[in-house]
Structure formats: structure tokens, C-alpha cells
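Need a sequence for this fold. Nothing fancy.
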């Protein structure tokens, strides 16, 4: 359960988030939409504890995300998956190694890592590219690698910021299908996007921001 309660954030004189409130239940698929500068990324960053609100409170399950110390932030981040717009893949590591890396750092044993990485590469359709480096992949394949990496520790909650930023319409459809599959398996998804195709494909619940204000919250199923 995500609870966003009267959250405001100012940069200088600009209200980037202005008294934003909403709740998300486990298993929901929420798209956060709005024009460039509306506050989508800032809201996502607040939800992952990377931006502290000036006012209001964000709780995710038992975590008071708006006021977590750095130790607790690490614990919280291990329970969520994050897909950044620019992927943030490690260029000197293969697809397999990029996806395995977080599990290695967390100290899991090799057999577990092999099995788990194979599972998420299968889900994201990246098995045949497991030994390729990021520079050898198309934009869509890099994006799917970033999603595989976000899913590898089986998070209950997946955040994605403009995941279709560099994709053509065909890959956008494929990515929307992949998100639907991930959501059907029980993962809650919070997607920030201004891509009209993606909004049309992922229209279960749409929260619209305009100049930092939540101006509509519509459910379609
Ligand atoms: N660290 C910062 N310092 C100052 N201003 C910021 C900072 N981060 C964001 N802003 C401003 O806050 C506003 C909202 O930015 P944000 O990145 O949340 O928008 P967005 O909805 O994600 O836009 P886009 O669709 O272009 O990604 C913008 O006007 C931006 O310039
Ligand atoms: Mg943004």
C-alpha cells in the first residue's frame, strides 16, 4: 500500500509538487501522466526516497519514505525495483552480469543467481542476448535489460520513469505487454510517462499532474 498524503515540494519559488494526495493498493497498475515539467519524475523520486518533500508524508507498506534515514533507505530500495529513463547499465558488463550484479552485491550464492537471472531474462525476452554488452543492444533491448535488472530481486513494487523514451511504436507495444505481464504476476507498477501510445496501452488507472497539482485520477477497470 502506497499512501501519498498532501505532499508538496518547492524548487525556489516553483511548486513542483503541490498538495498531492493519492493511495495505491497492492497489485495496481498506475500511470502518472502530464506534460513535460508537470512533476512526474519528482513524484517518482519522492516515492523512492530520493527527494524529500517539504510538506506531507509518503508511506509505502511500513516505510515512512518521506523521512527515512540512509540505512533504512537502502533496506527500502532492496524491496522495490526502479527503471530509470537512461537505463544506467554498466557498459563493461554483459546483459547477464548487469542483471546479476545487484544479487552478487547482496551476497546471494552463484546457483541462486544463475537461476534467478535466467528467469528474468526469460520474462523480458533477453535470454539470447545474455552475453552481449550494452553497446551491442538496440534501445528496446537495453530497456528490457534495465527492466530485467529491476525485477531480479522479485520486488513487490516496480517504478519506471519514461521507459519508452527511446523506443519506436512497435517496441512501445511490446513493453506495455511486458508491464501487463509483470503486473498480472502480482507486482504493483507505478509508471511515469508522457508517451501517448504508452498511456493508451496502460490505461488501468491514470493520475494526471499539471504544474505539480494532481488534477485527475481515473480508473478504467
Ligand atoms: N533538482 C531540481 N532543482 C530545481 N528544479 C527542479 C529540480 N528537479 C526538477 N526541477 C523542476 O521541477 C519541475 C518538474 O520537473 P520533473 O522532472 O518532475 O518534471 P516531469 O514531469 O518529469 O517532466 P518530463 O516529462 O520532462 O520528464 C521542472 O520545472 C523542473 O525544472
Ligand atoms: Mg520526467
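Here you go.
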Amino acid at each position: 500500500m502506497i499512501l501519498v498524503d498532501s505532499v508538496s515540494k518547492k524548487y525556489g519559488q516553483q511548486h513542483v509538487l503541490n498538495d498531492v494526495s493519492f493511495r495505491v493498493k497492492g497489485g495496481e497498475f498506475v500511470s502518472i501522466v502530464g506534460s513535460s515539467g508537470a512533476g512526474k519524475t519528482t513524484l517518482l523520486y519522492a516515492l523512492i526516497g530520493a527527494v524529500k518533500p517539504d510538506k506531507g508524508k509518503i508511506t509505502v507498506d511500513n516505510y515512512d519514505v518521506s523521512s527515512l534515514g540512509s540505512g533504512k533507505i537502502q533496506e527500502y530500495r532492496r524491496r522495490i525495483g526502479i527503471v530509470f529513463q537512461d537505463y544506467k547499465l554498466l557498459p563493461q558488463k554483459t546483459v547477464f552480469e548487469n542483471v546479476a550484479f545487484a544479487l552478487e552485491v547482496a551476497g546471494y550464492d552463484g546457483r541462486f543467481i544463475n537461476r534467478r537471472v535466467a528467469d528474468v531474462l526469460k520474462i523480458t525476452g533477453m535470454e539470447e542476448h545474455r552475453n552481449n554488452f550494452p553497446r551491442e543492444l538496440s534501445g528496446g533491448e537495453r530497456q528490457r535489460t534495465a527492466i530485467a535488472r529491476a525485477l531480479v530481486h522479485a520486488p513487490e513494487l516496480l517504478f519506471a520513469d519514461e521507459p519508452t523514451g527511446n523506443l519506436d511504436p512497435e517496441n512501445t507495444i511490446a513493453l506495455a505487454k511486458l508491464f501487463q505481464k509483470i503486473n498480472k504476476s502480482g507486482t504493483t507498477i507505478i509508471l511515469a510517462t508522457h508517451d501517448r501510445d504508452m498511456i493508451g496501452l496502460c490505461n488501468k488507472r491514470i493520475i494526471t499532474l499539471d504544474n505539480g497539482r494532481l488534477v485527475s485520477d481515473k480508473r478504467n477497470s
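For context: The mean pLDDT is 94.
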